[in-house]
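Bit of a strange request maybe. I'm writing a small parser for structure token strings and I need a real example to test against, not something I typed by hand. Could someone generate the tokens for this chain?
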Amino acid sequence: MGGYSMADLWAILVMQGFSGLSLFSVLMLMALGLAIIFGQMGVINMAHGEFMTIGAYAIYVCSKVASTYLPALLPYYFVFAIAIAFLVAFGVGYAVEYLLIRHLYRRPLDTLLATWGLSLIMQQVFRSVFGAREVSATLPNWLMGAWKPTPTIDIPLNGLFVMLVSVLVTLAVVLFLYRSNWGLRVRATTQNRVMARAVGINTSRTDRITFALGCGIAGIAGAAFTTIASTGPTSGSLYIVDTFLVVVFGGTASLMGTLASAFSIAQAQSILTFFMTNAMGKVTTLLTIIVILMLRPEGLFTAKVRR
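Reply from user aminoacidic:
Good idea to test on real output. This should exercise your parser:
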């Protein structure tokens, strides 16, 4: 195949697979937040990418503060900055739900148009505050370089780290939704809002926290994004289509489907773009997903809901 030996092909597949870990982590975290908002609440949030950008800019600001005022903390700041990125995106999401989204429930077209307008406003705010040029955070030294298990295979350390973060966040979300009283309220509100309200659940507060949680997870995706690319006002919008694709392909309201879909799409794009052009790799991946969705419109996994 293309003059490559079997050993070369194996090394390429392994390295491209691991290089796709960072893309997988970003898509996974973005789709996880969107699956909660779209799958659990039925809100089409076109500004979801901008919440990722909020997280990325939060990492950049923390990087500048650490390098300027607290240089001794540069090796350690990134872990704390991830938590700050989550809190900032969570807080903005909480305010957006209260001021805008809560007036548009059960009106999906209106939420689509309103959040699309919100995304444009947020992009302009980013330009006004941080400028139109892309910026990059200063990463700790332990995130740089690669691990070499063999002389022909290089595994990027940043990919391993952000994959660990995505796994921990996914486990936390699963525990939150399926092993906590608050998660029980979220699922009850999703399945039957009127009955949930009748048994004393504050559905408005549940919606607000759920929306903010999805935005906060997008903020963590922004933190992962800073390890693979620079941040600009439109960085988040570049991922919104892929994120919706992951959610629909995996099955709305299915966290397992989101995980499987994000991994499949990230690895397919990473490997195919090595042997093809970047555009052809994405087109091939998209066509494959379209064919699968034609055969299985509900996606890879479906949520079991009692009717």
